[in-house]
Structures are given as structure tokens and as C-alpha cells.
Amino acid sequence: MAPGLLSAGLGDVPAVQTYLDxxxxxxxxxxxxxxxxxxxxxxxxxGRYSAAVAERxxxxxxxxxxxxxGATLRRAGEGCLVRxxxxxxxxxxxxxxxxxxxxxxxERPPPEKNHALAIGIAGRGFDGNLTSGSTRTDGYVLSxxxxxxILDRLxxxxxxxxxxxxxxxxxxxxxxxxxxxxxxxxxxxxxREQVIGVSLLVWVLVTAAAVxxxxxxxxRFDAKLLGLSVIYLPLILLxxxxxxxxxxxxxxxxxxLPPILAYATLLALEGYKPLAVASGVVVGAYALDALAGSPxxxxxxxxxxxxxxxxxxxxxxxxxxxxxxxxIGGTGAALTAYWPEIERRRAALAFLASGLLFALVFAxxxxxxDVGAAIMLSIGAAAAASKVATLQxxxxxxxxxxxxxxxxIISAIDLVSGANAHLTRSVLDAGGLGDLGDVAQxxxxxxxxxxxxxxxxxxxxxxxIFAALAAWQRGRLRSWMSDTPLLEAGLLGALxxxxxxxxxxxxxxxxxxxxxxxxxxxxxxxWAEGTRESAxxxxxxxxxxxxxxxxxxPYGRExxxxxxxxxxxxxxxxxxxxxxxxxxxxxxxLLESLETGAVAQxxxxxxxxLAESAEITEDALARGLLESLAKVTHYVLTTPRVQxxxxxxxxxxxxxxxxxxxxDLIAIYEEAPGTTSEKIRAALAIACDHxxxxxxxxxxxxxxxxxxxxxxxxxxxxxxxxxxxxxYAAQEEGMPCLxxxxxxxxxxxxxxxxxxxxxxxxxxxxxxEAAEEDRR
Length: 776
Hints:
Helices cover 58% and strands 10% of the residues. It is of the alpha/beta class. It has a five-stranded parallel β-sheet with strand order 8-11-12-7-13, with helices on both faces. Strands 2-3-1-5 form a four-stranded mixed β-sheet, with helices on both faces. It has a two-stranded antiparallel ribbon with strand order 4-6.
């Protein structure tokens, strides 16, 4: 006998439904009938069924005729015999076969959950493993293939209502290979939810934790890493199908390898190149698998799930959903990354060529054999091309006709090759416009019904929220891609492909959810890259303005600048600088010129202009100083503490640091005991200590027109004395805080009079008018 496995039904069905499907040569999911099986069934494989069963069949969105096998045989004057036998009796029955006799033996249904039944066929021509045109899979056939096999053997025309294909034997008998494939198919349904779902959940949680712990600093990188990991996941699942590992090992592969590949891609490439390369690698891998006729995609966890009984070759709805996004969106990313200046018409042709190429691969019956891929890729490519092209009349007509050309080319290939793809059987075999309308109606009904499945309902709210947010914030989405119109066109095409696939597919809800996840990955990458580019442009603009507004160079002040440079090398800081002189000698210009040298040596420059201050209080002085400090501490890492930290998606323990914001400094200042100067010293202690951990140097506080601390102090307030006391105490404790002041000729004397220690604390440099030759 030629051995094989028999898919007993779509999902788990009772034995009566299996026999009914065999008798009618066609089947649909039980959930698509309006009601369950009636009590009075009748029938059998070759018998007649009750009117109640026929009425139930009429409610299904397909041409279902219970007992069609028996009726066809009776019209031809033939019959078939069904017997219940034990396994040990089969040998005698096989020995009794003569001429064109055919013996079909199937294991008694129903099988174990997610498993198939054993089947064997004996008779002339059946010498290898069983297969059929329905499955194109070695050692695997459908319950609906039995009726066409019997009719074909007897030379009777197979009715159009039978969707099954005659069973045949190919190659040599290999029971081990059949058992191995059956075992893999049996685990796909349950393992795919565990492996894929847990991997995605872990990635999202780790990403959220990384963003939280780094106060959003790594958000852009994490968004890219997560998006690329999602894109790479099908590639790893394809690899796993070749290895056929156990559940634990497959879970480990799926959870770890995509982030590793994503991390390596981000390190090696920049801009939108990682997105383009990841999309191209995944699409290329599945395209090669389809062209080679390999079973790997079928047996992968993201493949068509043959154990369910719906698809056994080609790419299936799951692959169709994300491949549509990766092909169209990936083309946009590739054009953006590698050919950003490409002419619009050439870009439109690139979208059309990409759509046509992969539609041929994934929709043609010889390869991917998926009618949804023909619709998604052709419509998506046309939409992207129309977005990017300058729409003159002939261009618009060309793009619109591209969709029909795609489908026509694929159909012609199927007719010539006899590949018998789903496109051919669903559309080209329709008897006319009425039958074609019935096909479209059934597709829409099946798509609508797919939204009622519990697993779909669990994720559908998230998809709707994503869609609502995208519509609400469409202006912001476009702003992220304002400089990348080719990527925007690719995402628009992918969105149109998703909508088309949802409407045209019998698993529309599944297509919508999977495609939405990949669209979200692309949008997240666009946000990360788009906002990064905006931030870089803003920084460049800031530097340009800063350069334009750069103060004039002081002339003849080399001695003062050299003295300031000497003070920068103090360790610890014990001497400060005060520039005094009448108005107009260039004190402000000199002070501003010192910033460049300080920053070049690793010091943080904190300026304060007191020229316009009307009335200065001690608290106002303190809060101004804290605001200056916060400009450094909000990006200088402070407050080390041990936390969990994410490198890629590997979570380790290490000491991390968090920024110190103005609110933190104010809290330290207000909670410190003592006078205002002591409160300032407390805040300086925290800030300086942690700045010193980050840098070998420290802080330069530059006060222009510091004489106003005395001349314009509020009644009963001593801001000058407060400043001197605070920094004297800070420097006594070794804090790297350097004070540079400018003021009138009397400033130094005023400081010494207020606090005698100022005589040793400050080096006074008196400025006079620069010589004429120095100004030149």
C-alpha cells in the first residue's frame, strides 16, 4: 500500500463531518455553517444524506453538495463499497485486488487534536508516498481528495462542486519522512501562539523597561531595534522549520536571534538602510523558498499551518500579510536609503517592478500560489507608484492598468503551466460574471466572518486604536517622513495593500492584524529616524546661529586670557578671577571669549548677566544659580544606583545614572538647613561631586556686572556676601567650582570690605582701553 496522512477536516471535526466531507468532495470550517450537524444525518461516504444536511450545506459560503460522490456514481451506473475492517485484515484485501481495483483504507476518525489520520491506497500505480494537487505535499492528502480519486479511477468526470484533487503516489515509500512531517504539522497550531506571542511580549516589555530606565534616552534606538526584530522574526522561524527543534529550543531561537540580527544591522548600517536590508533579506528568503518548491515555509510557525487543514503549499494568509508590507514598504525604504535623489517616474517604475516581481513569485501557482498576494502586491505597488509619480493623465492610466496587467500575467502563467493556483481555481474557473460575483461575495463573507474568531477579537481593539491614532495624528506621521517622500509612498502603498488584502481574503481579520503589526514596526522606525534627523537639523541650526552670533574677539587681552587658562589648571580650585574697569573697556567681550577655552578643556560654562537686574535678593541669586546648574546636570549623569539595564534585549545588572533636574536641585536647596549660602553650598556639593564623576574638570560660574549684587541688592539682603560665602565654603571642601566676575573699578574693594577672605580668594585684573595697534 502507498502510505500517507489524511487531513480529516478544517480544524477539529467529528467523525460524521469527516465522512460528510469525503462524500461531497468539498469542505468549509464548521463555524461557517448556520447550524451544527442535525440528529438525522444519514448518508455515509457513498450514500444519500437527509434534507436537513442539505439545507445546512446551503448556508455555507461555498458550493457544498452532501452525498455528491454517491450521486455521481449512481448516475454513471457505478458504486463503491465501504467496509469497516481491522488492520490485520488489510493484507488479505490487498491480495484480492484485480485489474483496476482500488482499495482506500483510512484510520477511523476523529484523530487526536491537531493530528491527521493514517491512509493507505493499494492498486495499480500506487507504489510510493501519497500526495495530491490539493496539498502538493509528500505523504499528505485531504479528505476531499478521496471522492475525486474514486471518480478519476473509474473515468467519471469530476463535478465542479468538488474542490479536492485525485490522489497519486510519487517516489518511493518513506514512512519515516511521513511521520516526521506529520509530527511537525501537529505542533504548529499550538506552538505558534506560544513561541511568537511570548517572543513579541518579551520584546515589548524589555523595550518599555529600557526606555523607562534610561529616561527615554534610548527610545529611538529601542524603537528601531524592536521594529527590526519583528521584521527578522519570520526569517528565524523559516530557519527553525528546517531544524524542526523542540518547543523550548524553537522558543529560544525565536526570542534571541531576531534581536541579535537587528542589533548587528543597526551597528553596521545607518539611516533607513537597516530597514531596507532587513525587509529585503526576509522577502528574499521566502522568495527563494517559494521558487525552490521547498516545504520550509509551509512547516514554519508563521506559514499557512497545514495541520489546520486549509493550506498545504504556497505562502498562506499569514505570510501574505507581512510580505505585502515588507515588499512595498521595504521598496520605499530601499529607495530612500540608497537612491534618495531618484527621478519620480523611475521611483514609480521601481515600485511597480518590485510589486510585479514578487507578485509573480508569491501568487503564481508554480511558486507561492496565493491569490491574495496578487491582489495585495499589485494594488499596493500601484498605490505607491501613484503617490510618488507626477500624475499626468497617461501616467495615471498606466498605473491603473498595472493592477490588471499583474493579475493577467499571473493568470496566463498559471494557464500555460497548469499550476492550478488558488487564483486559477477561484477566479478563472468561474463560469461567468454571475459565478465571479459569487466568488467575490463568498470572499467578503468569509472575511467578515473571520472578525468573529476569539483570537482575533483579543487583538482587534489594539489594531483599531492604532488606526485611530494614525488617523488623528496623520499630520505628525507625515512630518516624520517630510524629508523621505519615497518611504511615505511605500508606507501608503503598504497600507492600501493591507486594506485590499483584508477585504479580499477569507481570513481578512488575520491579514489586518499581522499587517498592522508590521506597519507599526515601519512607523516606529520612521519616528525614530525622522525625529533624529529633525533633532540633528535643529542642532545644526543652533550651531549656525551661535556661530553667527559669536561675540567679537577681544584685542590686546592675551594676558588676561592666559591668566584665566592658568586658573583652569588648579586642583583644587583656590583662586578666582575678577575683571574690573570702567564701562566700554570690553569686560563683557573678554568674559564671553573665555568660554571657548574653558569648554575645550572640559569645563562647563555657566554664564549669568546681572546688567539688567533691577533688584537682587539672596533667594533670586540662589535660584538663578540653580537654573544654571540644571543646564548641566539635566544631561550630565548623576545619582548612580544599581538597576536593571537592557543591552539590545539582554537584561543585565549594572550601575546606571539618572539626570538631576531643576526640581531636584531646588528640593536639595530648600531641604538643606542653614543660611542661603549654606543651602547653595549643599546644592553645589551634589552637583559638583557628580559632575566630577563624569568629567575631570568642573564648573565655571561667570557673572557679568557682578557689582550689581551690591549696588542693586534689595533692602536687608546681601546677595554679594551670600555668593562669596557659598563659593568660599565650596572651594574649602575641594569642589571644582571656579568663579569669574566682571564689574566696576570698585568691585574688588567692595568684595574685600564685605568679606576680607576675598582678598586671597580673587585675583583682580584691571582693564584699561586696549592700545590702537592691538585693536588693529
